[in-house]
Amino acid sequence: MKPVRGEDRSVVRSDTHYGIFNTNALIHLIKNDSNFLNAIHEAYLQSLSKDLNNVKL
After folding, report:
1. Which of 3, 12, 41, 53 sees the fewest Cβ atoms within 10 Å?
2. Which residues does the UniProt record annotate as the domain mRNA-decapping enzyme C-terminal (predicted)?
3. What predicted TM-score, i.e. pTM, was given to this entire model?
């Protein structure tokens, strides 16, 4: 993440920090929240179905 002109670089957090946070949050939700995992699975199935409907034979 690049600082805006004149912005103090010490207050800019790195993208890596947020990436690790997001990864850990997702892992926690997948392991501990069955509704979250079901929602991801349902979205995946819908995505596959949409992709298969767009296949031209």
Report:
1. 53
2. 24-56
3. 0.50
